[in-house]
Design a protein that fits this description.
The protein is α/β, with parallel strands linked by helices. It has seven helices and seven strands, in the order E-H-E-E-H-E-H-E-H-E-H-H-H-E. The longest helix has 29 residues, at 96-124. It binds nicotinamide-adenine-dinucleotide.
């Protein structure tokens, strides 16, 4: 579905990002995996992606990353903004440094990568940006206040970017996953206590009785990146196994 396309995935060595890179490669794209380290949050990172070291909070590195893509490929068709961090605190527990850090990665990172990708996406003629929101941008998990706020900001930014760049043939969407089995989720469970009991309880509150896999997310990203999604833009695509479709009482 992506033959001849050039893609760049920030957070490309994380749980979801790596699955996206692998899927894009299988679909025939040239893929740049941009992350802090080659291993990201996972140790066995090898695939056919071109690794580029990128801290998404750095304007200089965002500019240099896109310059490298331009030099090697001359255009960009797909940008996936999957780099993200989570801080498990209420606002009273959150320091200003925590707050600034999570906004720098989740929101400013999306802004900077998109800003410097846009000239290359214009050259493509049919660019697609896929941001990472979360169901936490609509409703709140307890103890994730700053994270929820960043995801709400990404949702609003997604709509604004879609309006501004639609006339240039660039589509912008956000995927808003529920629980996805990645290092980020494992950290969340570990911090909360007994992992196995918690995992079973979380599966139980999902109507589909499981949570998502990185490949579940990569399937939707792949479609949004492809020309089949040519009329899909400006939307927040919730992917949560019906978790947020049910009324709270049904969970009792
Ligand atoms: N896992 C879930 O349950 C879940 C649910 C909803 C949304 N999301 C979102 O999906 C995205 C991917 O999350 P994941 O679960 O794969 O997490 P993850 O922790 O496995 O991967 C995140 C990746 O981002 C990279 N990263 C962190 N800071 C960076 C920076 N400054 N510059 C560049 N890269 C940086 C990390 O190195 C890591 O490889 C995130 O935006 C996350 O908020 C995840």
């Amino acid at each position: 579905m992506l033959s001849g396309k050039i893609a760049l995935v920030t957070g490309g060595r994380g749980g979801i990002g790596r699955a996206i890179c692998a899927r894009f490669l299988r679909e025939g794209a040239t893929v740049f995996a941009a992350d802090l380290t080659k291993e990201g949050t996972l140790s066995d990172a090898a695939d056919g992606s071109r690794f580029v070291r990128l801290d998404v909070t750095s304007e200089e590195e965002a500019r240099a990353t896109m310059a490298r893509v331009d030099q090697e490929c001359g255009k960009l068709d797909i940008l996936v903004n999957a780099a993200g961090i989570e801080i498990e605190k209420t606002i009273e527990q959150t320091s200003l440094a925590d707050w600034n850090r999570i906004f720098a990665v989740n929101v400013t990172g999306t802004f900077l990568a998109s800003k410097y990708a846009l000239p290359l996406l214009r050259k493509s003629g049919s660019g697609s940006i896929i941001n990472f929101g979360s169901y936490d941008g609509f409703i709140a998990d307890p103890g994730l206040a700053a994270y929820c706020a960043t995801k709400g900001a990404v949702h609003a930014l997604t709509r604004a970017m879609a309006c501004d760049h639609g006339p240039e043939g660039i589509r912008v969407n956000a995927i808003c996953p529920g629980y996805v089995d990645t290092p980020m989720l494992k950290n969340f469970f570990r911090d909360a206590g007994d992992i196995e009991t918690l995992e079973a309880a979380v599966r139980g509150v999902h109507p589909m009785r499981r949570y998502g896999t990185p490949d579940d997310v990569a399937n939707l990203v792949n479609w949004l990146a492809s020309d089949e999604a040519r009329y899909a833009s400006g939307q927040l695509w919730v992917l949560d196994g019906a978790l947020t479709a049910q009324v709270q009482q049904m969970r009792l």
